[in-house]
Design brief:
7-stranded mixed beta sheet, 6-stranded mixed beta sheet, globular
């Protein structure tokens, strides 16, 4: 009899459609709400994505998962509320939870301690705290969707169980012993990350959308051409990158797509029709993904009534040629510009890497890009490359052409040049291991939308005290002024978009929520504290209401310039 290995994960949900993802231990038929899907096999692992249609808008329907006609989920005596699919409805308010950067380690000592108390400490998991609160409140207050903005798994900081698997199947030679090496080890990492009963219930009940970042593959993944050349010289890198793309497509990307997009995906259609194991088919696809910058589109959109979410891949599709670096290829830019439009109450842009950083960080990254491109000569460029990799200088500011192009796009939408201007344009990001909200303006330009950056990181991987002190320096005026002078000395032009921060950054394990109601919005950031390790709770750090503008404006306060 087949059994569930992982899932169910509730993935895409619209007003009438939904998809449910599972992994099983054998080939079988998977049923959800009378819809059936056959599993497909990759390297001996079995997966299914059940597509549901004809659902009633604005409905909430409990569901079970059957394998070959036998109920497999929820398990007997399950203490959690029933799994439920809640479809969207035009005109209804929307709650989007978001965050990034979650390592998978046990929720016991020493892992629940702070890093300062024990280097293995990762404190209290914000997702476990979210589940505990959801269990005590009505479903009407739950998030409608959960946006996971990168580093869903840490391939270069493996969990204890995956480390045991690595030790059992590898000798001392070869890939680093504390990192995954191939597809099989990736499957273990995902399984361990998503198998906690609390998290399993959360992902079965709240629709999720995901995009990867560097640690899903390797620290600094695609930071520069020099980094890629160094990694490709490693004999173990080929299997590592193929395993990363294979597992990402299966565990994360498939569930991002609408049913219409799924059946336009030639690889998905091929595995549905295949009679045997599809490992070589998926490996070939992964090989294309790894070698061709514009070979695969990982970006996607979701519409929630009068809100549009555009999720941008800011990691895999980069152009890294010095002098013309781009966060997105030209093909991806055209796709993004076609979909970032007005005619919505709210435009939400998800990208794992923040666009608006602390002024010191922004100018330092812009300076570094110019130096790496030769502004101070060849020797300085080599030093700049070491600084780029050593300090992780790879956000939008370090891809100046793309930062400028995105600024223009934001201004065009906010000014109503791409359809009636939305009330808000909100950029959601993670990666930087702190959380904040910043608001942008465009000096001398008339815009009606409010343009904001909401960043929330980490879910579970906090910085230690020394790291926090260093990051706080980037927000100090003297540091920002010095970094600005460095950038100007390297020929970096001032940016057209300015921004200012609504509050000081927070550095805890945390989760955020964007609440949209009509043309009003609110950002809520909540944190955990180590003292709650026996009973995880969320504590409010920030609650910021965002009312629509009533007049056009082009002014603002102090920020990066």
């Amino acid at each position: 009899m087949p059994h569930l290995v992982l899932g169910p994960l509730l993935r895409y949900v619209s007003d009438t459609e939904a998809t449910v993802w599972v992994e099983t231990d054998a080939a079988c038929e998977v049923s959800v709400l009378a819809k059936v899907a056959s599993t497909f096999a990759v390297a001996g692992h079995h997966y299914a994505l059940v597509v549901l249609d004809g659902l009633a808008p604005g409905s909430a329907q409990t569901y079970e998962v059957g394998l070959d006609g036998v109920r497999a989920w929820p398990p007997p005596g399950d203490p959690y509320p029933p799994c439920v699919i809640r479809t969207h409805e035009h005109g209804r308010s929307l709650r989007l939870a978001f965050g990034s950067c979650r390592v998978s380690v046990p929720h016991t000592e020493p892992y629940v301690l702070s890093k300062d108390a024990d280097p293995r400490g990762r404190e209290v998991d914000a997702l476990l705290a979210l589940v505990e609160r959801m269990r005590g409140e009505p479903a009407s207050r739950w998030p409608d969707a959960f946006l996971l903005l990168g580093d869903q798994v840490y391939a270069d900081e493996v969990s204890p169980e995956t480390e045991k698997l690595i030790a059992s199947r590898r000798g001392p030679d070869g890939p680093p012993p504390d990192e995954v090496a191939d597809f099989e080890e990736y499957t273990s990492l995902y399984r361990e990350s998503w198998s906690d009963p609390s998290l399993r219930w959360l992902l079965s009940t709240v629709s999720s959308a995901m995009i990867f970042d560097d640690h899903d593959v390797h620290d600094d993944w695609n930071i520069s051409e020099a980094w890629i050349a160094r990694m490709r010289a490693e004999p173990w890198w080929e299997e590592r990158i193929l395993g990363a793309y294979m597992s990402y497509w299966i565990y994360q990307h498939l569930g991002n797509l609408s049913p219409a997009r799924l059946y336009d995906d030639p690889i998905f259609c091929a595995v549905q029709e295949a009679e045997g194991d599809c490992e070589e088919l998926v490996r070939d696809f992964a090989r294309t993904s790894a070698r061709e910058t514009a070979g695969v589109r990982w970006s996607f959109i979701r519409d929630f009534g009068r809100t549009r979410l555009v999720m941008l891949d800011s990691r895999a599709g980069r152009v890294l040629t010095p002098g013309r670096r781009q966060m997105l290829s030209d093909r991806e830019w055209e796709w993004a510009e076609d979909r970032c439009t007005g005619d919505f109450d709210h435009l939400v842009i998800g990208t794992s890497l923040p666009v608006m950083l602390g002024a010191g960080m922004h100018h330092l990254e812009a300076w570094n890009e110019a130096v790496c491109d030769g502004a101070w000569g060849t020797r300085a460029a080599r030093i700049g490359e070491r600084i780029r990799q050593g300090l992780d200088l790879e956000h939008w500011a370090a891809f100046g052409r793309c930062f400028g192009r995105l600024s223009v796009l934001l201004e065009d939408v906010a000014a109503g040049r791409r359809g009636p201007a939305p009330a808000t344009i909100v950029l959601l990001s993670g990666d930087v291991h702190h959380a904040y909200v910043a608001e942008a303006w465009f000096p001398g330009r008339e815009v009606t939308s409010r343009v904001l950056q909401a960043t929330c990181s980490p879910i579970r991987n906090p910085l230690d005290k020394r790291e926090r002190r260093l990051l706080r320096l980037a927000f100090k005026r003297p540091v920002a002024a010095l970094a600005r002078r460095l950038a100007r000395s390297a020929g970096v032009a001032p940016v057209a978009m300015r921004w200012a921060f609504a509050h000081d950054p927070t550095f805890d394990n945390q989760i955020a929520r964007l609440e949209l109601d009509g043309r009003h919005a609110r950002v809520l950031i909540e944190k955990t504290i180590p003292e709650d390790r026996h009973a995880p709770r969320l504590h409010e750090s920030l609650s910021l209401g965002i009312a629509p503008r009533t007049t056009m404006t082009g002014a603002g306060g102090n920020g990066a310039r």
